[in-house]
Structures are given as C-alpha cells and as structure tokens.
Design a protein that fits this description.
Distance between the termini: 85 Å
Largest sheet: 7 strands, mixed
Strand content: 15-25%
Shape: flat
Helix content: 40-55%
Number of strands: 25
C-alpha cells in the first residue's frame, strides 16, 4: 500500500515537472518567435516602403517637366483643333515612353483638353476633373498627389499633378496617372500581407484582393459621406475589416481577424479567426500609410515543435532514469528469486511426497516390464494389499481378466512419435479378497535416457457408475413423459386447427350474409331502375306490332333497336348485384382503386342520387394499386359509404370526402362524412359485433365488425376517428403496390 502511494506521488511529481517544462518552453519560444517575426516584418516593411517610394519617385517630377513644354503651353494659350491633335500625339508618345497609365492636360476649369488615351473609347478628353483634390492643389500653385479609383476607367491609379504657368499665370494643370498593380504583384510572400491606406484608413493597395477598398476600422458617418461624395472609390461600400481584438506588443500590434466576415447573433458561427502581427509606417510625402500583417502560424508551429522537442527530451530522460532503476531492481529480484527457487524446490519435493501419500487417488509406479515399484496408501485402501506385499508383482494382477489386454498393450508398446504417452480407460479392478469394482485408470509413460517407466493413477468410480445408472433411468422416464405430452399436444393442435377452419367458414358465411343484406337494401333501388326500361320495352313492342301491320319496316327496325339498347341497360343494372353476391377467392392480388370505385359506385349510385348525396373521389385512381381482394374490398367500401349515408340522415349538407395518403409501402384510404360524428366514449366499441347506433330495423351492427375482419385478413387495418371540423373518418390501411408495366406505359 505504501509502495503504491509512493509510486503515485512520484508519477504526480513527474507530471507537474513535465507541465512546468512545457509551459516555460512555450512561453520562451513564443516570446522569441514573436521577436524574430517582428524584426523580420519590420525589415520587410522598410523594404516594401523603399520600393514603393522608388516607384513613385520615378514619376513625381514628370508633371513639372511636362508643364514647360511649349506645345502644351500654346494649347492653353490658344485652344484649337490643330493644337489639340498635336498635344494628344505628344502626350501619347510621352505616356508610352515613361510607362504611365494615363497623361492628360486640363484647363483652369478642370476640362481635359488633351490626353494620351485620346484615341480610346474611354478617353479623358472633354471630361471635367475639377472635383479632384490633385487639381485643386495644382491650381493653388503646388504639386499634387492623390490616390483614387478612376471615374472613367474604374481602375486604381496614383495621380501626380503640376500647374502649367506662363509669365506667373496658371493656365492649366498637367496630370500623370500610374498603375499600382505591379507593386502588388511584386510582393509574393505567402506569410505576410501588405496594406497601403490613405489618410482615412481606406485600403487601396493590398496583397489580398478581398481587403481592397475596406477600412482598418469603422469610419464615422460624416467621413464616409465625404469620401462617397468625392467619388474617390466609386461605388465600393468601404466596410471595415472584421478585427475582433487588438493587443499592443512593443512597437507592433497583435491583431485577431475573422476570415469570412460572417457573424450571427453576436457570436462567431463556424468562422475561422487568424492572428497577425501588424506594423505600420507613415509616408508623409506620399500621403499614405503602409502596414504589414505577418501571420502568426509560423510562430505557433515553432512553439509547437519546441514544446514537442522539450517533451521528448524530458520523456527520454525520465525513461532513461526509470530504465536504470528497473535494471537495478531486476538484478536484485533475480538474486532473490534464485534463492527462493532453491528453497521452493526443496519444499516442492517434500510436498510432492506428502501429496502422493495423502492423495485420494491411488498412485502406482511400474517398471518397463509392468512390475509394481511403489504403492501409495490410497492404493492400499482401494485394493486391500500392503505395499511390501504387492511390490514386485505384475500390475495385471490388479485388473480384471477381460480388461488386461488393453492395459498390457499400452505398457508393452515401444515409445515413439506415433504412440500416445498416456492412456485413460475405465476397467474393472480386483481386490485382495477377489471382489471387483469399477475404476478409471490413467497410465502415463515417463521416459528418460535409460528405460521407460509408468505411473498409474486410479480413481474409484463406483459411486459415479451408480449415479449414471440413476440418470439413465430418469432419462428414460423423461423421454416417455415427453412422448406422451407430445401426443397430447398433437391432438390439441389438430382440434385447434379444426376450430380455426370452422371459424373461417363462419366468418365467410357472415361476410356473405352481410353481402346479401346489402343486396336486399339494393333491391328496391334496382326494382325502381328496372321499371322504367320494362315500361319502355312494352311501349316499343306495342308500337312495333302496329307498325308491322301497317308495313312500316323501318319504324319496326328502329323500335327493335331501342328495345335492344334497353336490355343492355338492364343487364348493366343487374350485373353489380350478381358480381357483389358471389364469393371471393380469398387470394391477395393486385387491385386497382379505380375498379373498386367503379364497382362501389355502380352499386350505390341509385341511392346516392335519390338522397342527393355528393361524393368526392381523388384523381388518377387508375394509377394507384393495393394488394388485397377486389370483391371483399369493394364490399367494405360499399359498407362504409352506406354507414356514411345513414350518419348524415336529416342533415342539410350531405357530402362524403374520400382521400388517399401514401406512407412508405402502405396506403391510407380515408372516408369522411359530414354527420354528427361518433361520441368519444363510443369510439372503442365501433368494431365490436352487434354494436350499432342505427335506428331499429336498419341493421344488426355486424357490418363494421365484418369489414374490420375483412381488412385484417388482407394484412390491413380499419380504424375510426372524429374529424376536427366535424364528422367521422374511417381509414383503410393496406399494403401499397406498384402499377403494372402496362399501366405505366399508358401514362
């Protein structure tokens, strides 16, 4: 217990030291890495500012030089078409020579008289740029500098301007515009980004395209409105970068920036944040600031690698110390184990002898010829021989005559790879008094360099044999009882199957009876339907006899044709009655809901018409199929429609809505009436036999019970509920089926 606690304390101490080492390594590595990054970023920033200044210095004196050219001065003194053309050619040549973006000349009103892009579609000639600050600076007699987005070209440019004077009078302004894209592309360090901002903090040069025309911080509304009014950056929104944190670090800032710029509910939602080291330098003569943002990922990688290295070194040292301690402990344990092994061997020999003498199994050792060499006390008790008497006798003396051959064969065989070293067998043994008893023998071969010897282990199994005999008798009795019980169950099962068949027959008879009851209800309507054609047939027949006597054959033929049509109509009226009354096959087949609708409506149309009931069926029933029995499903539908009609008796609005809902591989066919509905307390009794809410003489209450069993027999379910807007809803749930290929092909 004390040793375990010491180990836990040492492990805790080593863990604390490890954490302190890693913490110090991380702190020192991060400080040094950030210092190195700051020095590197500062050098890069100075180099970039120098290259930017050199690029701008190439052009800053060009407007002053061009302002003294006589052709430009003459154009301002004497404006004319000939002078304009010459000035355009001159500016075009100058612009191509110096590599500028555009060069143009303006009068004192800011109107462009000549430009290097005079021949291009988006020429500056004729445009007025008096609103630009560089024009106002030049008109005040000094050189101007300005960065802006071109109102004509929509390209970024840096503008140099200078007044054109003649005898102390300012006649106009000459402007040179340069493109700054080359300055961005020259910077290709993937771990640092360059930003050039104007005096308002608007980024107009950046190595990151998505940062252009954004601000380092949100601008006040008046400054934002001033910049938009000057058209300096066109229609860009000038939104600020998503900087969520700034920390001062020596001469720099640690900036945390959101990559993606999406914030939801005041919290970052799946947005990556990155840290940068920012340094900024002002370039007063150019009128802008230059910032460099160095990514801190290299710092994190350096810190991580140093931490891993420190952890590896610390772990290696700890493991080395543990290894040395373990080797020392192993040497001590080895010496102690050797001493213990010697003592244990001595104790083992004494223990083996005690076990042999006191074991419950008889142990006998034999020589190579099967003669007994030793006899332990248990063997003496089993066989009734003293050790000094039996030693030197053949082992076969202790075995019954019938089992001696098996034992002697194993003892007499030569040892080899194919011969088993151990034989286990049940034999009959012989005591000194001549009595026999069952034993389990294990004859093991003990081979050494000289001769074979054997050890025999003997267990008296008299009690086990008696238990086996009892178990055998119990098993025979159990088998007999199981056989008798099986016969009883077989007879009970046969009786049960017979009763099930009788119940099925009774159910089919009830279904057929329900059909005949519906047929009885239909008979009055069919009688009414048949009276009209019969009356018409009688009239047409009488007329045909009269026309035949008068010799009007055509009239006779017409009347006979009408009689034929009326007989066809009567056959159609009677056909549903005959089809509905016949018994079903009971086999599940592919059933079209259109056929079910047509069959049910042919049976119910007369009653629906007499009672002025509106019934709505869903569209495209010819493409919807279920698995079931056509006639039995038609019977259920007729029963549900009949119940709906009876529920709406006395109502002003008689309307039955039928709808279909598909649920995976099942189909719901719903029937809703607009009656009073079913009381909530009675919903659970609707499908019970002989339950009815009808008036006396209108039914026995078996229709819904039979319909429920019909749907169950088709692997379906019939349920009922009340609609929220009034009325009852009966739902038939059946397995849905795919339309046959012949139907699909007709779609």
């Amino acid at each position: 217990m004390i040793r375990t606690r010491l180990r836990l304390l040492w492990a805790l101490l080593l863990t604390v030291i490890f954490i302190l080492v890693i913490y110090q390594t991380v702190a020192i590595s991060r400080a040094r890495a950030v210092d190195d990054l700051q020095r590197s970023a500062s050098a890069d920033l100075n180099r970039y500012i120098l290259s930017l200044q050199q690029e701008l210095d190439r052009y800053k004196d060009l407007p002053k030089l061009l302002s003294t050219h006589s052709e430009l001065v003459n154009l301002l003194l004497l404006p004319g078409s000939e002078g304009i053309h010459g000035a355009n050619l001159y500016l075009e040549k100058v612009n191509d020579t110096i590599g500028a973006s555009d060069t143009y000349l303006m009068d004192i009103q800011g109107n462009t008289l000549a430009a290097s892009n005079w021949s291009k579609p988006q020429t500056f000639v004729g445009r007025n740029f008096s609103f630009r600050p560089y024009f106002r600076d030049a008109m005040e007699g000094r050189s101007g500098r300005y960065f802006a987005l071109g109102t004509t070209s929509k390209k970024r440019g840096y503008f140099f301007s200078y007044p054109v004077e003649y005898r102390g009078t300012i006649l106009g302004v000459i402007v040179v515009k340069i493109d700054l894209n080359d300055i961005e592309t020259d910077w290709n360090d993937p771990l640092t980004d360059i930003l050039v901002t104007d005096e308002d903090g608007v980024i107009f040069i950046s190595t990151r395209a998505e940062w252009k025309f954004r601000t380092l911080k949100p601008l006040p509304q008046e400054d934002l409105q001033r910049i938009i009014s000057s058209l300096r950056y066109g229609d860009h929104q000038l939104t600020s970068l998503s900087i969520v944190e700034r920390k001062k670090f020596q001469d720099s800032e640690l900036v945390t920036l959101i990559e993606g710029d999406t914030i939801a509910n005041g919290a970052l939602d799946g947005i990556e944040t990155r840290q940068y080291l920012q340094q900024t330098r002002a370039v007063p003569e150019a009128g802008f600031n230059v910032s460099i943002l160095a990514d801190l990922k290299p710092v994190d990688k350096r810190v991580l690698s140093n931490a891993l290295l420190a952890g590896f070194i610390y772990s290696a040292l700890v493991f080395l110390v543990l290894l040395l301690l373990a080797r020392r402990r192993i040497a001590r344990e080895r010496a102690r184990f050797k001493l213990q092994q010697t003592r244990a061997l001595e104790r083992s020999e004494a223990r083996v002898r005690a076990i042999i003498d006191n074991t419950h199994a008889g142990l006998i050792t034999l020589d190579a010829h099967g003669l007994i060499e030793s006899f332990n006390p248990t063997a003496e008790k089993l066989f009734g021989y003293r050790s000094d008497v039996i030693v030197g006798e053949y082992f076969s003396k202790l075995i019954g005559y019938q089992d001696r051959a098996v034992c002697w064969q194993h003892i007499s065989q030569e040892s080899g790879a194919r011969q088993p070293n151990e034989l286990m067998v049940e034999v009959s043994s012989v005591r000194a008094d001549g009595s026999q008893f069952p034993v389990e023998l294990i004859i093991g071969r003990m081979s050494d360099s000289s001769v074979n010897r054997f050890v025999v282990t003997i267990h008296d199994i008299t009690e086990r044999k008696e238990n086996e005999e009892q178990l055998r008798e119990a098993r025979d009795q159990l088998e007999q009882r199981v056989s008798e019980r099986t016969e009883d169950l077989t007879r009970a099962n046969e009786r049960l199957l017979q009763e099930v068949e009788e119940h099925k027959h009774t159910q089919n008879e009830l279904i057929q009876t329900a059909k005949l009851a519906v047929i009885g209800q239909m008979s009055a309507g069919i009688n009414h339907e048949l009276n009209q054609p019969l009356t018409a047939i009688r009239s047409y027949a009488d007329n045909a006899l009269s026309f035949l006597k008068l010799g009007k054959v055509e009239k006779v033929s017409s009347n006979l044709h009408e009689i034929s049509g009326l007989t066809v109509r009567m056959a159609k009226i009677i056909a549903p009655l005959k089809e509905f009354s016949r018994k079903t096959s009971g086999q599940a087949t592919l059933v079209s809901l259109k056929a079910v609708r047509d069959g049910a409506m042919s049976i119910m149309y007369g009653r629906l018409d007499r009672e002025n009931v509106k019934i709505e069926w869903p569209d495209k029933l010819d493409q919807i199929f279920v698995l079931g029995d056509m006639l039995r499903l038609e019977q259920v539908v007729v029963n549900l429609i009949s119940n709906a009609l009876q529920a709406m008796e006395g109502g002003t609005e008689k309307w039955i809505e039928i709808s279909i809902q598909r649920q995976h591989d099942r189909l719901n066919l719903c029937f809703r009436d607009h009656g009073p509905g079913i009381p909530q307390s009675e919903l659970g009794k609707v499908f019970e036999p002989f339950y009815t809410t009808k008036k006396a003489g209108q039914g026995l209450g078996l229709g819904l019970s039979i319909s429920h069993r019909i749907i169950e027999s088709m692997d379906g379910e019939l349920s009922v509920s009340n609609h929220s807007m009034g009325g009852a809803v009966f739902t038939i749930n059946l397995p849905a089926a795919d339309a046959p290929a012949s139907v699909v092909g007709l779609e």
